[in-house]
Structure formats: structure tokens, C-alpha cells
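Protein 1 of 2
SEQ + STRUCT:
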Amino acid sequence: VQLQASGGGLVQAGDSLRLSCVASGGALSTLNMGWFRQAPGKDREFVAVAGWSADKIYYRDSVQGRFTISRDNAKNTVYLQMNSLKPEDTAVYYCAAAILDSPILWMSKLYEYWGQGTQVTVSS
């Protein structure tokens, strides 16, 4: 499975961005899809996950209510709609795919496939 993330950019605080991640070489409908981010000098952290089953959507607390993850299995694409962006959201954002189902999909080590990352910069 290959993942291609896009949609990052430079925005001001309060603006919105939508990230996209297109999967190829595999059916998105069978994969748990997550978004992670890594800011300079910090560890990679979980942002959101949309499991292959519709009842598994989770967010990290700091983005809850501002970010929305969604998936279009017909287009093999997962999205991350980011609203009310803050400077602390600045990071490289990665999409990732996990084959196995798990109650701890917030852990990056469960993901076998990773996209190349897209930079999101939020100025104050």
C-alpha cells in the first residue's frame, strides 16, 4: 500500500485546511486510517483515526471539535478537515494505514504504511 498525503500549507491562526491522503495498491475499506503529526524537536503524535468500521473514530483531545477525519472508500481517500487552526498545530502531518484492528489505534507502532508527510504551518 502506498499513501500520498497532500493539502498542507501556510495559513493564519483561525483558518482552515483540508488534508487528503490517497491510498494505492490496496483497498482503503479494509484499512484503519490514521493521521499523525510531528513538530520540530518533538515526537510524532497521534491526531485522529478512522477505523474501517464506522464506529471507530477517535481524536486527540487538543483537536477534538476542531478537526474532522473522514474517508471515502470509493475514492480510496481519507481526509482531515482542520478548522480553527492554532500555531501549536504546526507540524508535518502524516497519514498512515493499519491492517490489524486494535483498541489502541492511537499508537503509531501499529501502522504498517506511512505517507510522505505534508507540512502545515500556522502563523499567529
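Protein 2 of 2
SEQ + STRUCT:
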Amino acid sequence: QVQLVESGGGLVQPGGSLRLSCAVSGYPFTNYAMSWYRHVPGKERELVAAITSVAGNTKYADTVKGRFTISRENGKRTVYLQMNNLKPEDTAKYLCNIVRTQGSGFLKIGEDYWGQGTQVTVSS
């Protein structure tokens, strides 16, 4: 059974930092992409950042470029999201995702798995 467990969310003031973690267990494939999405009620879920397991290729939403950094530890099947210079508009539930991919890019060839999410609130 595939499980994703996120941690690291919380309340932070504007300009502050948080580091999210997502640990995956039970995933049988070695070629995959792990991503962070965020969701605000009433809005569509948004891809924040993603990273591939093989080449470590990354991609980011324009709204977080230069402020957020995604990284991974393949041996631990863990992905991190370092969030700096947080803004009130970053407030959302952040969800971790893993999907099997082909090659060194982000071409999906498998089923999506999701964590339960961790809340990030940026407020003074």
C-alpha cells in the first residue's frame, strides 16, 4: 500500500520560511516524479514544484520561482519543499504527489498517489 506523509506546515509571518517534508512508503517504482501542489477552497489545485527521481529535473510555478526550492533524498523516498519569503497568498493546504514517469522527464505513465496535505498559513 502506497502512503505519503507530509509534515512541516504551520503558521508563519510574511517574509518567514517553512520546510515541508513528504515521505513515501510502499511505492514499487524507481522512476517517478514527486510534486507539491497546493489548494485553496474555491480555487483549482495548483502545481507548486516537482522533481524527478532519476535526473533530479525540477519545475516550478511562476509564482514561487526564486522563493521555493524542491529537493529529494531518493534513498529515503523523501521530498522537501523549502519555502522562503512567504507571502499571504501562499496560504493553502500543501499536498504531496507521486507518479510513475518515463525517461528523465515528467512524462506520466502511472497512477497518481496523494498525501493528506499539510496546512500552511502566512499571516501577521
